[in-house]
Amino acid sequence: MLFTVAYEMLGSAADAEDVLQETWLRWAGVDLDQVRDPRAYLVRITTRQALNRLRAVKRRREAYVGQWLPEPLLTAPDVAEDVELAESMSMAMMLVLETLTPTERAVFVLREVFDVGYEEIAAAVGKTPATVRQIAHRARQHVDARRPRKTASVREARAAMESFRRAVETGDPQGLLDVLAPDVVLLADGGGLKRAALRPVVGAEKFVRFYLGRSRKLGGTFTCEPTFVNGSPALAVHLDGEFDGVMALRVEDGLITGIYFVRNPEKLTAVTSGTPLTLR
């Protein structure tokens, strides 16, 4: 729970691990006889540490090269079974959370995802319970206005992903057009370390032209391996057999409406060497 709180606040598995380490160091020095509710105490420490780090990284992200995407988190299939949790940590939702202020994000994650009480949240963010209620209401309205219209089932997402995978691997333009929504958006994150579109690619036909053109320039063979990232089916992309990045997909009404392609190698450690996050 503490890792997921930190990750959903920060969008980075590496930063979340650092927050947990800092939380543990503080917990190790506490007189446990003075702690009435260990869970609430740990949530408070984790939230405060994550808030401090979030305020710092937000300044760094302003100078980020190209599109910034959350660090993909490898998850076990059972995470997708918890629909609310899977939606809250999806790439699409994580980008929506990026538009909140640090305090709004903390309040939203604690209240809407983990159902933490207002008094506990107030202690964690240094506000009164009444103020936290107002922040929660404002954050909920903000998120509801920007969140994906409809969450696809795992089965529906897998079917769309498989059609997309076949079309990508074979370079089939019509196959891509058949599975992409007309207004599909590609966001690619290379972080200045790998080539990636610096701006969103909007529209199915533009995406197909972009993908086929980029494939010809690279001159290699793309293969995709199904995996689970951020609670949803995704693709691990390989170029000539070498791991190249992770492609998360947003699926609505059977069509792909969002493609999130992370190529920045500094963001892929949690996928290549991490243990999948599981609920069990």
Principal-axis shape? elongated
Average pLDDT level: 92
Order of helices and strands: HHHHHHHHHHHEEHEEEEH
Instruction: Give the strand content.
Output: 15-25%
Query: Structural class of the helices, strands and pairings?
Result: alpha+beta
The residue fraction in helices comes out at 40-55%
Which key terms come to mind for this protein?
single chain, 280 residues, alpha+beta, 6-stranded mixed β-sheet, 13 helices, 6 strands, elongated
What's the quick description here?
With 280 residues, the protein is α+β, with helices and mostly antiparallel strands. The protein has helices at 2-10, 13-28, 38-61, 77-81, 83-88, 91-97, 102-113, 118-125, 129-144, 154-170, 173-179, 204-218, 269-272; strands at residues 180-189, 201-202, 222-229, 232-239, 242-252, 255-262.
Structure description:
- By secondary structure, this protein is an alpha+beta fold.
- It has helices at 2-10, 13-28, 38-61, 77-81, 83-88, 91-97, 102-113, 118-125, 129-144, 154-170, 173-179, 204-218, 269-272; strands at 180-189, 201-202, 222-229, 232-239, 242-252, 255-262.
- It has a 6-stranded mixed β-sheet.
Please render the helix and strand layout as text.
Layout: H1 2-10, H2 13-28, H3 38-61, H4 77-81, H5 83-88, H6 91-97, H7 102-113, H8 118-125, H9 129-144, H10 154-170, H11 173-179, E1 180-189, E2 201-202, H12 204-218, E3 222-229, E4 232-239, E5 242-252, E6 255-262, H13 269-272
Parallel strand pairs: 1-6
Antiparallel strand pairs: 1-2, 3-4, 4-5, 5-6
